[in-house]
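Troubleshooting: if your tokenizer reports a length mismatch, compare your output against this known-good record of 446 residues.
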Amino acid sequence: MAALPASALILGEAPGPLGTALAAAPASGSATHYTIVPFLNGDDGTVNVYQSDDATDFRLLKASAYTPPSNRIRDASVFKHTDGYYYVTYTTHTWQDVSTTIGFARSADRANWTFLYDYTVPITGLSRAWAPEWFVDSDGSVNVIVSCSLTSDEWIFTPYRLRATSSALTAWSSPVALSGIGSNHIDTYIVKVGSTYHAFTKNETAKYIEYGTAAGLTGPYTISKTGDWAGWGSYREGPSVIQLDNGGWRIFFDGYGDGTYYYSDSYDTFATWSVPKALPSVSGTARHFTVIKEAVSGGPALATNVSRSLRSANYTTRYWQEQSALLNLPVVTSAGTSAEKQASTFTVVPGLADANAFSFRDTAGNYLRHYDFRGRFDTNNGTSTFAKDATFIARTGTSSTAVRFESYNYPGYYLRHYNYQLRVELTDGTDLFRQDSSFVPVTSWA
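Known-good structure output:
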């Protein structure tokens, strides 16, 4: 079993108010998929495709899934169109080269891609067109935000908007500069919340990711956060922002200065952010990607308002058992005492903080919640903090019958066994962690 992480985080404390709307745990029998299509740290001639169900642990879907017929592929941005296809747009040349085109490819399954075309961005005196990013507006219009520089100053970039004028994404409007962001900004990523457009953009001089807002897609933007305002550090680029299943927001960015890929979370609509963490599995391998999120069928199906016992997927004689209010993983057999079987029986109920997620109640009416990295049973005190601490999102386990339970208010943290204790720990992206955090709901012992 893996060693415990060195962390001072006390999980009994809530991270702050959750984001609003447009997010909920996947319903029983469905799942969340997050997809990234990064180019590789050692190879900008191809891209891998990775998938995650929690936006933290990305697993390889296909290596070298797309190699363009000519040129390179860097800074790939991906989205799913209304025609059912996935599309990527990307930088077509290395950073040293003059590059007036952006590339396009599409896929029906994210694993097999077909080159569509290279598009010359129609800007007079264009030197470089880099880091195109998809943005689908609330009116359904499809846009690409692309960073462009002129031959008069080839290293000073300005963000421009291209709007698709055909549903097949083969024709584009004239480029329009995003006003207010200003020159010498690159990798501009837009998120719309309500009626406000939020821009995350790299200041190419200071090497920090800055933040601004506007009432319209093309601006004018007001840049209100500069320098190390979020605590992410400098030499950061390629921001991509998505909303998590619990309503919070997550930013991913390329720490090209130290070779690490990071993520950080916000629960107050971008005002403050968590300490950035290295993204497991792909950090050090992946470079500059965007993330798309979609709901799919085929996720864990877990009945509620029924009694269940939960067996370890990789230690098949060991079950969840409440011992002195703490959750442990002892051996449980048919020869066990009535008290032991009762302590290994729990009622699965709709999540206290999200009815699509799950909570677990013992026979005394107490609820499983996380506190100080341990699973324990406490009386529901009616607070929102308790409800979040006692709510877990079902994620796919290591088999068709196994389920992993992710903390609702600490994404990426899972119930897992360590030294036969049930703990809540941050995934490290390894197969061992996935095995230790997979459990099979079975007919209750009691």
